[in-house]
Amino acid sequence: MLSQEDLKQIAAKGISEAQVENQLEQFKQGFPFLCIEAAAGIGRGIVAPTDNERSKYVNAWNEYKAGGDKKIVKFVPASGAASRMFKDMFAFLNGDNDEPQTDFEKKYFANIKNFAFYEELNSTCIKNEGKDIPTLISEGQYKAVVANMLESKGLNYGQLPKGLLLFHKYPEGPRTPLEEHLVEGALYAACGGEAHIHFTVSHEHRELFKKKVDEKCALYAEKYGIRYDVTFSEQKPSTDTIAANPDNTPFRNNDNTLLFRPGGHGALIQNLNDIEADIVFIKNIDNVVPDRLKDDTVTYKQLIAGILVTMQARAFEYLRLLDTGEYTHKQLEDMIHFVQHDLCCRKSDIKQLEDAELVIYLRSKLNRPMRVCGVVKNVGEPGGGPFLTYNQDGTVSLQILESSQIDKNNAEYMRMFAEGTHFNPVDLVCAIKDYKGKPFNLPEYVDKTTGFISSKSKNGRELKALELPGLWNGAMSDWNTIFVEVPLSTFNPVKTVNDLLREQHQ
User: Fold this and answer.
1) What are the residues facing 385 on neighbouring strands?
2) Does domain 4-79+177-505 match CATH 1.10.10?
3) Does the pTM of the predicted model rise above 0.90?
4) Structural domain boundaries of the chain?
């Protein structure tokens, strides 16, 4: 099926023939749905800290940072283009109507002055059209305004990544999400006078990101009295996956080469694995708010990080005790309680294990990466939900599930998904070193059976695409997970341009 030319193309991407064969086999076989025990809720896998506990954990985080020899990194997936944000405005620009018809279009124009990019867009219109925005609108030239926002002759927002768009207004000038993340890094992730921030970006936008960092870093370093260390990485070509025709044969481009597609955000587990850090915060590029609303974000980031380092310290203490070989049955029972109750990782027949088997089991469950995920009350936003699910080894643990991983024909599962009280807005803090200070090899903890297949098209031809296990889904399947309820005020994603008109972004 694969020619010599194909094998050359595969090798150039750093992918083995066996990987491609395996992916083609996955198209044929499909992926199994996950086996669910229950949706997680308060008291069932989700912790809702009291005010007292909140202060305790925030203090624990600040004490951890004061320890001095720790490296903390803020990891921001930022490779997504903003094109989806402007889907409605592209439709207007390319449609037959010259004036706004839909509620979305009308809202955009009625509130255009409230966008943080208004001044820049207005100057662009004057330069390119010889008229400002109010004049263009009064003359019915709505499309000229949109073209200057989206196209390369203007702001080129249709092709830029979200991280570089102007999101928020400030007296000293508007800010991009990239800048808001620099500020956040200073407020909760700085340690020893330094904030390490890592952006994953697409190849074509890397230089633009770098330029923006070079422009802005000194300003925020001075403002917060810290040094910044900002780094970038790209999704590796070796994490691309082959595309297939509907009959599961390799999809070929018009020049007969194989089509490979990016493997989705699950590919970033490789980028995360390359990060040298003790603790890593993960948060999407578009989930930012202006300074006036940052207090909750900062408090709860410190809270979830405080829970993480507290839980990690307990796991480390138990592992060191196991290493000594000198422990009592009572101490083993304490460990069982910690794994089953605090880490919500349950094994139904644990009582049947002899002490020697029990020690092996406890060690395997304690000695692995750990993450604390902020979850918010469900308000109908799409996203992964927190669930208790069955693992390959028969244990039950906490996972973040996407709707694609759930069997739509299983009425009970669909009910659980529909009635889930919380969802995960990608608000994670991760501990990625073991108790001896050695980094975990993160790809070892991926559940490879949790990828999924989606339908796409290229040049008008239908194709099947293979998504790797998602970064916070199957890619972290074999981690210890703790879910913590955080307020909705910490979750303010921007999916469409009009979301920037929400009060939270004004």
Assistant:
1) 401
2) no
3) yes
4) 4-79+177-505, 88-160
